[in-house]
Amino acid sequence: MLKAASTPTEETSLQQENGQAPKPWRNRPYHRLWLTGQARTLFDTFQFASVNPLGGFYELDDDGQPIKDENGSGTRNLHATSRLIFSFCVAKALGHPGADEVIDHGMDYLWSGHRDPENGGYFWGVGDDGPVDPSKQAYGHAFVLLAAASAKRVGHPDADRLLADIVPLLKERFWEERHGAVAEEFTANWQPLGAPYRGQNSNMHLTEALMAGYEATGDETLLRMAESIADLLIRRITGANDWRLPEHFNENWELDLAYKGSEMFRPAGSTPGHWLEWSRLLAQLWVAGSRRHDWMMEAASTLFHNAVRDGWDPEYGGFFYTVGFDGRPLNTEKMWWPACEGIGAAAFLHDLTGDAFFEDWYQRIWNFTTAHVLERPNGRWIPQIDRELEVNTSLFSGQPDIYHSLQACLIPLFPAKGSLLDCALAEANAG
After folding, report:
1. Is residue 376 predicted with pLDDT exceeding 90?
2. Are strands 76-77 and 125-127 parallel, antiparallel or unpaired?
3. Given 141, 274, 350, 372, which residue is catalytic?
4. Is 31 in the active site?
5. Checking CA distances to 145, which of 1, 86, 173, 304 falls within 20 to 30 Å?
6. How far apart are the first and last CA of the chain?
7. Residues annotated as region Disordered (predicted)?
C-alpha cells in the first residue's frame, strides 16, 4: 500500500528558497476550475438522485442510487434534510440550474414532515407514515436554523415562517443561559431524554447556524449566543485541557472522560476533525464579531496546529477519527469529513494570516484526499478508509450528504469574510 507523501509541497519549498512566492493553489485559475468541477459533480449527483417523490431526500448508495426500504422509500433524518437545503441554497447563489426545486422540496418536508405540529420542534427521523425517531435533538435543530437562515438569504418564501418557528424554539427549549450553551436532547413532548448529557458537537454546529442566522436577520442576540458557546467550549474548557477539545459532559458541563456513546456520533476520546472544524468557525466568528475577540484567532491557529500534530497519521496520512487526551490515536479509521474540514480551515486561515504553514497543509490534505478519498471516475467521496487506506464500512457507507465535501470545494474560492453562502451571494451581487 502506498504511503502518504512526507512533505506537503516540495515545489513550494524550492521556490521559497529561490526567493519566489508562488500563488496559493486557490488563487491559481486551474485549481479554481478544478474545485468548481468537483462541486458541480456533487450538485449534479444529489440533485437528480436524492429527491424522494414522497417527500424529503434519499440517502445514496456507492453507485449514487437511492437507498430504499421495502416500501420504496426510507427514513429521512433531520440533519440530512436541512443540510441539503443549505447546500442547494449555496447552489442557487452560485447560479446552478435546478437548485430552486431542491430547496422547495426540502423546505416543504421540513415543515410538513419533520415538524411536530402538536408539541413543536422537529422530529429526528421520519418515515412515510410519520416519525420513526420522534426525539428532539439539538444537533438536528441547529441545522434547521442553518436551513432557515440560508433559505432567507436566497429569498425563499417560507424562510421567515421557519425562522419564526426555530429561533424561539432554540432559545426557549434548548438554550441554558446559566451555561451559555444548549442542552442536548428531549423526548417528543420535551421531557429529558436518557441520562443527563451535554455535547460539544451540537453546540459547535449551532455556532455555525447562529452565525448564519445573524447574517440573515441582523439579530445580534444570535451572534452573542454563538460567542457564548465558543467562549465556554473553546476559551475556557479546551484552553484548560491542553487545547485538546473535549466532546462529552454532564449537565453541569463537567468533563465526562469515561463517556462512550455511538461510535459514529459520540465516540470516546476527542475528534481531531472537530478541532479543525472549530478552527474555521472561530476565525469566521472573529470576523463576524468585528474582530473584537483576539483570543479567537489565537485559538483557531492553535487548534489547527494541534489537529495536524496529534490527528494526522505520519505513516499513511489522513486524520485519525479519534485520539485520547494524551494525543495518542484511539480509533485509527479515517473519515472523509475531517479532511474536508481541514481543507476549509487551512484555506480560511491562510487567507486571514498569510502563514505558509496553512497553505502547505491545504495542499497536503487535498493531495491525500484526491489519492484516497475521491473515487474515480464518478467523483464519489469514499466516507471511510482504514489506517492502511483500504475502504471500510464499519461506520459509514454509500455516499455521504454533500455538506462537508461541498464546503471543502467551495470555501477556498472566496475570501475569508463570512460564511460560504454569504461570500457566494456577495460575489453574485457584486458590480
Report:
1. no
2. antiparallel
3. 274
4. no
5. 304
6. 51
7. 1-25
